Amino acid sequence: METKLQAIGMQVRDLDVIGDHIVGFIADDLIPPSPRAEHVPPVEAFRKLVTDHNLATAVPPFYLQLANKSGFFSTIGPEILTVFLGLDPAESDSAKHFLLDYGLWREGDLYEERTEKAERLSKPVRAWWKDATRRKQTPFATSLSEFWWTRDLAETLNDLRAALLRSDKQRAKALCPIVGEHFIHGYKPSAAVEREANFLLALGTGRMLESARIAPIEENGKLFPVIATGFSRDAVFAQLLLKTVQSNPLYRCKRSDCDKIFVRSRLNKEYCSDHCQALTKRRRQLGKPIEEIERADTSLRRN
Ligand SMILES: [Zn+2]
């Protein structure tokens, strides 16, 4: 059965960076009134979900119907995965732009208290948070180190699937501990590489789909079980889940000076575009060394 997915993001604004955190506000004045409860003030209803720590449970199935391309709840397209994996940590503003385009990263970013030590708010962020609450805004703080760690994890899971598909046991064996050591205390890799890789794909992707929900959604008069997500991080891993089960991981263009990440339309396609393929062919004809013009492995990781 085909898995249906509907992802929405919540608009954020006034982003800034304080130490390890991107801080900003939820654009909650843009929340549309609920068609089910027009008398309920939308901002107060939304803030109550935040104070009750209930946002992840309520948002995806409830607000899905209110999402559109430009409103507070925006529809997220499948390109989010390509965009996310193509982000470069060296470009300091790219994480900010990602949040502006795809919305709030995860539910936990709306809460001042954090369980993970590395994500805890620093003194300056807490001071900023206090000010925001006093001004009756809905603040959030996204940990940059968690954000970039997540990008690396998504890349590893994508490449692990790519390695399995081309039966590259060496590569799969090298990638397994990267996932395993994060999720399993005292991780020891198993000798059965393929089974281990599949196990870790399920574990890593499933754990990161933190607040995805399943709901029956109507489409052309029929009801379907749909995976619904309300945060951009969940949208990334929901797309990764689809790519994994469709045996369709993402690849980096084989032209060494093109960094574009793309979806393969046919199995033998190794370049992002006809242009890159033609250029490489031309360079080869000019007699440049093959090592310089081609990558050996076109999944995302380069070594
Ligand atoms: Zn290219």
Strand order of the largest sheet: 4-1-7-6
Low-confidence stretches: none
Tell me the number of structural domains.
Answer: 2
Q: Round the mean pLDDT to the nearest integer and report it.
A: 90
Shape, principal axes of CA atoms = globular
In oligomeric terms, what are we looking at? single chain
Query: What pattern of helices and strands is seen along the backbone?
Result: EEEHHEHHHEHHHEEHEEHH
Relative helix content: 40-55%
Number of strands: 9
N/C terminus separation:
36 Å
Determine Rg (CA atoms, Å).
21 Å
Bound molecules: zinc ion
Number of helices: 11
Estimate the strand proportion. 15-25%
Structural class, judged by helices and strands?
A: alpha+beta
